[in-house]
Structure formats: C-alpha cells, structure tokens
Design a protein that fits this description.
Radius of gyration: 12 Å
Order of helices and strands: HHEEHHHHHEE
Structural class: mainly alpha
Pfam families: LTP_2 (PF14368)
Protein name: Bifunctional inhibitor/plant lipid transfer protein/seed storage helical domain-containing protein
Distance between the termini: 15 Å
Strand order of the largest sheet: 1-2
Number of helices: 7
Keywords: Signal
Helix content: 40-55%
Strand content: 5-15%
CATH architecture: Orthogonal Bundle
Largest sheet: 2 strands, antiparallel
Number of strands: 4
Length: 117
Amino acid sequence: MTKFWLAAVGLAFLLTSITPEQSFYATAADQTYCNGDLNALMSQCWKYVQSSGGKKVPPSAGCCAAMKPVDVPCACAYITKAIEGYVSMDRVVYAARSCGKALAPGTKCGSYTVPPQ
C-alpha cells in the first residue's frame, strides 16, 4: 500500500505541468489510477508528504482512508526524480506506515529505497 501511495502521488504530479496543488485539481480531478482516487490522495495527504513541510506529522484518518485502496506496486512505477523533488519519500513512507501499510525495507520506489522501520 505504501508503494501505491508513493506512486499515486507521483502519478498526480506527472499529470500536471504547474505546481502540484494547482495542476492536480485542474487536470486529475475525479481520476483513478492504481486503484486510488488521486483527488482524495492529494486533498487528504499532500500536507503530510510535501518536501517543504516541517517535522513529520502522523496522517489524518482521511489520508489513511485515501491510501487504503491503492495498488502499491503500480504506484511505485510512476515515481520519478521530478516527483521526488515535490514529495518527501521519507514522509510518504512514514505516512503509509502510520496508516498501517506494510512496506518492506529495501523496496524501490523511483530512486528511493525504503529503509528499515
């Protein structure tokens, strides 16, 4: 599930050409990829995974609900270096694990390797 979340967030950014927040809502609203609702992921989880955030904060129940249906291996396939510039992969893994998503250490999502817990 963590991989999916990473991929879904990455895919949302791939679909955009301006800032992640602005373009996602303009071009990807109501779209589903890797079994996840991109609109829900971005609206519920963005503040927990953005690279410009402060300290790590446990995600909300709404964010965890948005992550639940995501196909993690599918999502990881969409993570690029550009996406990694917007999203903190450490925060993504933290959020996913905080939501009860299993993510094996050593798993690759883009250029990121998931660390041990």
